Request: fold
Amino acid sequence: MESASGFRLIPTSFLPHHLPIHLKLPSLQRSNFLDLHRNRKNVIRGCYGSDEIGPIDGFQLTPTKIFTQEAIGAEYGEGFETFRPDGPLKVDVDFLNDRLQEGFLKRIRYAMKPDEAYGLIFSWDNVVAGTQALKLSAWKELAHEEGKQIPDDDDVQRLLLHGAPDHVLQKVLLWENEACELERLESKLSQLYSNNLLKLAEPMEGLKEWLDAVSTARIPCAVVSTLDRRIMVEILENMGLMKYFQAIVTEEDGMDSMAHRLLSAAVKLDRKPSKCVVFEDDPRGITAAHNCTMMAVALIGAHPAYDLVQADLAVGGFNELSVINLRRLFAHKGSTFMELQKQVAEKAPAKRRLTVDTIF
Reply:
């Protein structure tokens, strides 16, 4: 049997089965096979930091952006660049609001079921899962292993949660100044935090009931994070939340800012950014949502209420929400349209008796 190029091909079934597959191939095919295998390893190494998919030396994969403060993004409505067969395509906020317009059939459906036109995007930290205690625990474990001390000062604790690790290590804790040692400590910190994340079993209070409510209303949901996708999926499955999310945006999506992650989630949900509601606990995330023309619901807790005044709605927990609040976010009727209201069962109007007047 000959190939189109004139080389004779030998069926691998005629060769000893104990040989590796690349040794059963002719020299040219073997070279191509090795090139493909090498490229595959390079891709895996670039994504995971190792030649293999899975834990490395018994340790879980370490997310690289867990403690990195992301840029807000989309300050002028700019988006991200994606690639198509005909070349790169720049996707910005106006582009998505225009291209993701509902078609004729969708408009009819959304007229009958308006809740389905919305898309809900949940931030990971302190919205889906309480991560403050896990981050502080990771810092304390790092200090214990390195033989260091962490002050109990409130300002230091706040910086441990919201500051960049290299800044905290150099300027706040004064542990290290060497670049290589800083990199080692940051990597170790991320590893400790990711190990703590895998122990999560319960989501934020009231979240599961809220997701049940929006799932009944057939409103699609997405979750955004800087975590590795495999770790994110495992945690969501541990908490029993995976079935509620139709889209997940993680580190592998390659987004450079908070706004870009939100836009990516809108694309995956097939909803216009202007029809999306973002659930956040961080003032910077609320700004990113507004830059993307999205509504923002703030959860009070990690930040005090006075830091979240720019949100369209601020609540103490998911148990204060109902689907009617989503409708009122887009209604803009009256000066008190954002006041929380309990959803009540709609009563059918009283039937009127029709009479016909006859004129003689």
Q: What stands out?
A: The longest helix spans residues 27-48. The beta strands are 80-84, 87-91, 119-123, 221-224, 247-249, 276-280, 295-299, 313-315.
